[in-house]
């Protein structure tokens, strides 16, 4: 099922999108402009100015020559494709963390968006969204044009892949169903959320609170937030109603009161959430898919789990066994974790079609 929200597209952008090779599009090429401008994003990135030696984010030596990587762009629903990596040198930078509020005008959130359904979950079409944003000027964060022009799904330290749904997301979703994972009353973090489908399922499953985090501010604003809205009880249907009946920001904000949205690098994100409340309650569940591709980030990721997970909580992580070209993968990450001696790791599910994928659980070795 596909819904369109007031959407027109410049022809040359259609050509650019065609080069992305994304999923089938239903475009009206007779129209010739993007109807309304989208707001810019507050991503701050200190390329070249950040003192890498002072940040544990970079204290792990890259494996081989994988100083950074580039994932070839592939169809969204290409989440189902295998990983294809190339080497790509780039100066790393750090995305400063910030919290994103639900905008007052929720109609704007779905402007220029097309909603599709995958695994029973409505979500915005990323390829359409990319196309709508291609013509826009973002002084700070132009990850769409960078990702399109470099034909990559990942530019280390700049864009970390949240603009597409990666296949291990579906492995975790399947695991939730198979293992009947109970979200009711839990405080959940969707770490490296991209589309946010994991957190959305937790939200639908009665989680007490769900936090979404992505490296890129634009991903939160243009993908995660709209997806959460269309999956909320009165989200998409409410938006289709004529103005007087349309769901107001207030009503939706109430419905989504237990959701919070953050962008930024993991260490920065930890500092932000831990300082955001006087008595921060840690997460019962941290859900994370395809976030261990880069060994440079292991230290920061491990610390995030350590700092934010409740002592009786668990991390459910889904990953490919190995990320060619970047060097990360399940074996290396588990070795890293075991050396730190804080968490127990356990393989819950091994998916063996083509490149092996694994669902792993992390729990504290010494729970509270
Ligand atoms: C390959 S994408 C996976 C997105 C999504 N979980 C999925 O499976 O579709 C990796 C995600 O991890 C996050 N990420 C990776 N490295 C990060 C870092 N160092 N700090 C913060 N977020 C990071 C990015 O935001 C990105 O969305």
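^ structure tokens above, recovered residues below v
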């Amino acid at each position: 099922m596909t819904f369109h929200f007031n959407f027109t597209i410049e022809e040359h952008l259609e050509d650019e999108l065609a080069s992305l090779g994304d999923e089938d599009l239903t475009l009206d090429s007779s129209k010739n402009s993007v109807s309304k401008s989208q707001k810019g994003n507050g991503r701050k990135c200190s390329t070249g100015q950040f003192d890498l030696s002072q940040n544990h984010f970079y204290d792990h030596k890259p494996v081989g020559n994988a100083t950074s990587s580039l994932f070839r762009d592939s169809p969204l629903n290409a989440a189902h494709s295998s990983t294809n990596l190339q080497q790509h040198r780039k100066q790393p930078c750090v995305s400063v963390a910030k919290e994103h509020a639900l905008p007052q005008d929720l109609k704007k959130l779905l402007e220029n968006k097309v909603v599709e359904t995958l695994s029973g979950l409505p979500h915005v079409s990323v390829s359409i969204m990319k196309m709508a944003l291609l013509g826009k000027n973002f002084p700070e964060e132009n990850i769409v044009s960078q990702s399109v022009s470099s034909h990559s799904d990942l530019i280390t330290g700049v864009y970390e892949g949240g603009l597409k749904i990666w296949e291990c997301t579906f492995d975790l979703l399947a695991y939730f169903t198979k293992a009947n994972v109970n979200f009711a009353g839990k405080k959940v973090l969707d770490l490296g959320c991209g589309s946010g489908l994991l957190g959305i399922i937790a939200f639908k499953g009665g989680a007490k609170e769900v936090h979404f985090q992505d490296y890129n501010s634009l991903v939160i604003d243009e993908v995660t937030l709209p997806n959460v809205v269309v999956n909320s009880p009165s989200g998409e249907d409410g938006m289709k109603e004529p103005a007087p009946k349309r769901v107001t920001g207030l009503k939706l904000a109430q419905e989504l009161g237990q959701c919070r949205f953050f962008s930024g690098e993991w260490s920065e994100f930890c500092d932000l959430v831990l300082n955001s409340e006087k008595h921060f309650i840690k997460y019962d569940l941290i859900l994370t898919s395809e976030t261990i591709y880069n060994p440079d980030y292991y230290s920061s990721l491990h610390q995030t789990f350590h700092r934010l997970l409740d002592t009786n909580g668990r991390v459910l992580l889904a990953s490919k066994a190995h990320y060619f070209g970047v060097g990360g993968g399940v074996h290396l990450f588990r070795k890293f974790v075991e050396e730190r001696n804080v968490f127990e790791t356990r393989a819950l599910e091994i998916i063996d079609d083509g490149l092996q994928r694994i669902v792993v659980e992390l729990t504290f070795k010494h729970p509270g």
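The pocket of S-adenosylmethionine is lined by residues 160-162, 165-166, 168-169, 192-195, 214-216, 265-266, 289-291, 297, 300 (CB under 6 Å).
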